[in-house]
């Protein structure tokens, strides 16, 4: 039988112009993985490298565990998918032991493969090689406890509390409620005048949701066959602070998508150029809507250097930004002949800082080719300020069976001690 897997995709837009420098990182929000017993994880990325320059480092980090799980052995796979070419680089890891705050991954993904739209993928599953022996006996014991408590609910033996909901009656046990959901028990009994007086709770939950809820309270399991999780189940879990039910519902998704977008503006300038002995600079003013910058002036010219080689000289100037503000420019320059055949291409990034009024920033590149008298010059600009935002979108599979066995035995042990 194939093991259950959790897959998270981290989709980064405008990754090519990511402004982070060497040893600077970006992270996903923390996410909970139900098939790894509710442990919490995070993906970490060093776009410009961590231990190896000119490479991208991609890591998986274990954050924390409310369930008190010390070590967990995990099989996982890190991969990078570059769009639109759909090339993929994969690094698998087997039987890795993760304690809280441990980090594992790969620091040598080639930076040159990365495109504007890049997807970082992590697939996780619990390793059978070590965890089966460590947790098998404990799991069997807890599953037996879960089954026996569920039988207590089904058989209604020794019930001392009756709940009415939608014309149906549910007989439950105050002791179980005291251990598992004390706030809910306090809400139920505050207005109860006599023992075994039915308590109507139709105003806060539907009968079907209550049946699911009671099943979870007694057994630690939620058995759902629909992607539609009742909204009132969420509400009652939050209202009465049933922490392990909230945590279980957080781990419902079998896959997640994290989107991070670096804000960038794209501009393409194309000139048909006739190269005269005295080449006048090509000047264009680009309107920019990043931060407080109003305009970016691009000044482009072709000259010969001291060695007689022709070079592209680019000058940039910011207008309308506050002192010491910075804007980054990624530029790709393509030289084509009049038939639009590419003769040469280069790309570069530069950081513009408005610290001296009227200052120009230079970018010079030797092409190593003789530029014809008539040629086409195409310049693709990407202008950005490094501001990033991330959102999380969770997707659920169609059939779900979730369990949270970590809190159930703890609650029962507290009950026995009392």
From TrEMBL:
Annotated Pfam families: BTB (PF00651)
Membrane-spanning parts: none
Alphabetical list of SUPFAM superfamilies matching this protein: POZ domain (SSF54695), TRAF domain-like (SSF49599)
Domain BTB: 159-226
Entry protein name: BTB domain-containing protein
UniProt organism field: Nephila pilipes
